[in-house]
């Protein structure tokens, strides 16, 4: 990552940067009923992602054309006339956006860091959900702690969420990495009483570890809620450049022989295999997962994934 300055919006995010995302928060939806079949939320995932829920309203006489699945057989048997249940769409579907601002996110090889892209995606999602009339809150998990903003139908509330993202983002320059599994476990412990049922939960992270512990926690949350995962990745994590590169951390360094085709292919295969295995695990629990890279326009990527049909 070439850094022209420490305050570069490609390396660190500001509140102003996140507020600028609002005009882009249109043309897509996280509610499954508004998805086309080719959307990540369409097809096989639609049975799990329910969109807004339904409230029972009344029982009335069956009319030709009513959905036979809604027939109330108890009332029908008692009255000797076919009756059907009538439902009305719930007013809202509360949402919780969980965004990763831990050390592994503080990386970018060409354009933006993963942490900045994650922050932008969180802002886009928050604005979109609020515009659809739902309560929205957020969780920021970072190396130095976890911040929880309870869901409200209030612009000021998402601004507080953004402020926490910005604060944790700034801390990345000097923070020490924590164990991803432990951090995610702590997040789930903090929000368990919030997400009782029928929440939309969007988790934004690089998911750099697909451990059984992480999968177990995700599966638990998905039992009574709609969980969607957004994996943020940098192209160099998948496609090694045709050059020898020294990569490492504070504790070790390694020489990657990118000039060798076999090395680049193994690198690509490793990324794809790891992701596909994680995706297969999530499919078992009907949890959609999609990828967002750090170089393409985020709103364009999101609309291609969550394409919303014309009204």
Question: What descriptors fit this protein?
Answer:
alpha/beta, 2 domains, two-stranded antiparallel ribbon, disordered N terminus
> What is the averaged pLDDT score?
82
Class of the largest domain, according to the CATH hierarchy? Answer: Alpha Beta
Q: What overall geometry do the principal axes of the alpha carbons give?
A: globular
Q: Do you know the CATH architecture of the largest domain?
A: 3-Layer(aba) Sandwich
Give me the Rg, rounded: 22 Å
Instruction: Give the termini separation.
Output: 41 Å
DSSP helix fraction: 25-40%
Beta strand count: 10
Number of self-contained structural domains: 2
Number of helices: 8
Question: Strands across the major sheet, in which order?
Answer: 5-4-3-6-7-10
């Amino acid at each position: 990552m070439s850094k022209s300055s420490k305050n570069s919006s490609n390396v660190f995010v500001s509140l102003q940067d996140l507020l600028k995302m609002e005009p882009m928060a249109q043309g897509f939806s996280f509610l499954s009923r508004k998805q086309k079949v080719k959307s990540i939320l369409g097809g096989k995932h639609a049975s799990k992602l329910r969109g807004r829920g339904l409230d029972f309203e009344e029982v009335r006489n069956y009319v030709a054309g009513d959905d036979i699945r809604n027939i109330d057989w108890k009332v029908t048997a008692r009255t000797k006339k076919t009756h059907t249940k009538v439902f009305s769409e719930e007013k809202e579907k509360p949402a919780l956006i969980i965004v990763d601002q831990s050390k592994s996110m503080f990386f970018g090889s060409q354009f933006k860091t993963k942490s900045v892209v994650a922050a932008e995606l969180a802002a886009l999602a928050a604005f979109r959900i609020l515009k659809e009339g739902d309560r929205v809150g957020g969780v920021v998990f970072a190396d130095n702690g976890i911040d929880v903003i309870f869901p409200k139908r209030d612009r000021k509330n998402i601004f507080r969420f953004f402020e926490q993202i910005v604060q944790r983002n700034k801390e990345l320059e000097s923070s020490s990495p924590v164990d991803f599994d432990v951090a995610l476990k702590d997040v789930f412990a903090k929000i368990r009483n919030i997400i009782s049922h029928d929440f939309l939960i969007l988790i934004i992270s690089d998911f750099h570890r697909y451990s059984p512990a992480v999968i177990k926690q995700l599966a638990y949350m998905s039992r009574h809620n709609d969980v969607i995962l957004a994996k943020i990745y940098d192209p160099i994590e998948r496609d090694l450049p045709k050059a020898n590169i020294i990569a490492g951390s504070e504790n070790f360094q390694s020489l990657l022989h990118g000039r060798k085709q076999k090395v680049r292919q193994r690198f690509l295969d490793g990324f794809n295999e790891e992701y596909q295995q994680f995706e297969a695990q999530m499919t078992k629990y009907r949890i959609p997962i999609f990828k967002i890279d750090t170089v393409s326009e985020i709103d364009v990527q999101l609309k291609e994934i969550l394409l919303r049909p014309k009204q």
